[in-house]
Amino acid sequence: MIYFGCDYYPEQWSQWLEEGEARWAEDARLMAAAGFNVVRLAEFAWGLLEPAPDQFDFAWLERAVDLLHDHGLQVVLATPTPTPPPWLLDAHPDITQVTADGRRLGPGTRREACANHPVYRERSRIISQALAAHFATRPGVIGWQTDNEFGCHDTGRCYCEHCQAGFRTWLAERYGDLDALNEAWGGAFWGETYRTWLQIPLPTHSAAQRSPSHLLDFYRFSSDSWRDFHAMEIDILRRTCPDHFVTHNLMGFFPQLNYYDLAAELDFVSWDNYHYHGATPAGVAAAHDHMWGVKERNFWVMEQQVGQVNWSAYNPVPPPDFVRLKSYQAIGHGADGVVYFRWRQALGGSEQYHSGLLNQAGRETMGYREACSIGQELARLASVLEGTEPRAQVAILLDYDSRWALQLQPHNSRLRHDPPADYSLENPALEVDRDAFHEPRYLTGRAYLAWPFSAAYTAFWERNVPVAVVAPESDLSRYKLVCAPFLNLLRPAVVENLKRYVAGGGTLVLGPRTGFKDESNRLFASPQPGPLAELAGVTVRFFDSLEPERINVLRWEQIHGARRTEIGLWAEVLDPVGAEVIATYTQDWYAGEAAITARRHEGGGHALYVGAMGGPTLYANLFDWLLRDLDVHPLIPSMPGVEVCARYGEDGRRVIFLLNHTGQVQRFTLARPVQELLSGEEFSTFVRLRPGQVAIFEDGSQFGQAL
Ligand code: GLA
Ligand code: ZN
Questions:
Q1: pTM above threshold 0.85
Q2: What is the DSSP letter of 210?
Q3: pLDDT tens-digit readout, 580-590
Q4: Which residue among 153, 303, 342 has the greatest number of ligand 1 atoms within 8 angstroms of its CB, and so is best to mutate?
Q5: So what's the pLDDT on residue 155?
Q6: What residues pack around ion ligand 2 (CB closer than 5 A)?
Q7: Could you say which of 1.10.340.30, 3.40.630.30, 3.40.50.300, 3.20.20.80 is the CATH number of the domain covering 3-157+226-386?
């Protein structure tokens, strides 16, 4: 079954409307009418659930749960810890975080509390325990969301005195003695050799750049702090509510927390899928594939945008079919739950401009009407989708240490910002084969990651080749091709895993800057890519960080004859040692030198090294060649902007989703007649998709050529 519903704040409506709680019944009726089966409640309600220390008022929440349950709706409750109540902040003003430049956040709003503040932790434990115990056996409650979006609003890292103390303890545990820390951080250079743990500062705002090793450890410590806070809540829920699931709503490519660690103890992850101005279908698809890959398991969308948001640069009304398209895109990528944010636009308080399924006056919006039709369709699709999940033959590795290392030292000003919409590296020649659908803007604010990651991802996405975005330590043997576009920092376990993968016959594509940094964020003393040099059969002679106007052009020696591809921003000159040259530079004083190499191993393994940074075209040239060899095919070839994704059942069932993200009608020819599952319509010679339309089919082998 697909869980389908909305995020609801009954507590707001009883205060605003004359009818008070009587309105809840009308809300529940409209939810049930839309085909909803689940509602998320209470993630910000701490101040109402515990109006004074240890005085709990769960009665209103009970009434809401019971009423929803009476209407056939199940409930996901949340621990309300993102919003410490006024009495707590009043008694302990130092609960709020301190920024890197020493400013303390003001109390109120949400997410301002420090994960390491002992009183905040203790009070979070008390409210979570009380709430869990109260609702453990309440009919209708099926699971829990922990807190809400850890790290949101740039609160993943705090520089307060509790974090100062916590950081020192964390370091002492990690390094054991100060000599090891001093050696790892390389502080001897500026005389920063620490003689006691108490001398170690937080990496606050400083005159010059701090040691990247110091910074990376602080990023790890901060991520671990929220992981530990999270573990406290998960532990309470596991012990108190053994029959309920536990999830957390992540934020796609959020850069501050290591999501593999944060999610390790959850049953499944959820995420919040918003599309600010400039979000693209490929970017959203990539985020879904990462959310699937965090646990290599189906996930939920716990907040799906249904109309305008209140926080984007511009806030356009999503066009008709937006909710349909985004809901089915999520399901096609492995969502087993789609929950809309929010039920009704708020009359007061924060986020007044944020749309809901109902508008502020309680009228149905376009989003609500689309949800109603999806609700009916999902009831029909339930049996077809039961037990299905996406299945990828290709993985892209996403590594948080490497993200952080590169964010700390992008070494090229352009890599601090996101790629331009056309991925052009500011060269008109590259613009021609890009269109609006391929812009990787969704990754905004993720800076470095966006360049190499979305270039590789987009190349697969354009080919309708499913991808899983997974941790570099995961079991790679299930994938035929593994692409690691930015594995700058290598931990020993990752090196071993990649070697094992290639030894087992896998094909590995490494990107520029691979293997420059060791686990402590120092340079390896051996030539790049350090411990992977032998596997790749190559070393990097030097790298060039290019000004935007300096474009180089690659010639694909072995694989594409005369074809040329432009690259920019980063160029490494490679010395093959056992690898063959796949592409060479043709410009600049290193024209003729190797840019891409490949080493074949006995047993069929293949290790490629891409030393240049380019757009999707660069990777497309490589992947077209590799995928053919590996017998990996597009699910169905399509025209640009028509996405195809699939879910598979144990019994060999395959459910294909066609998503027309373009503004034009699109057609697919058919080899055999086929029935479309949403409409029940039979197609005999071709399938026609209007702009924004979704079509779902079983099997998919009926498809011939895309028109
Ligand atoms: C986040 C939060 C929600 C709400 C939305 C607004 O995802 O989890 O509470 O603030 O953003 O878009
Ligand atoms: Zn702190």
A1: yes
A2: P
A3: 999 999 999 99
A4: 303
A5: 94
A6: 114, 116, 158, 160, 162-163
A7: 3.20.20.80
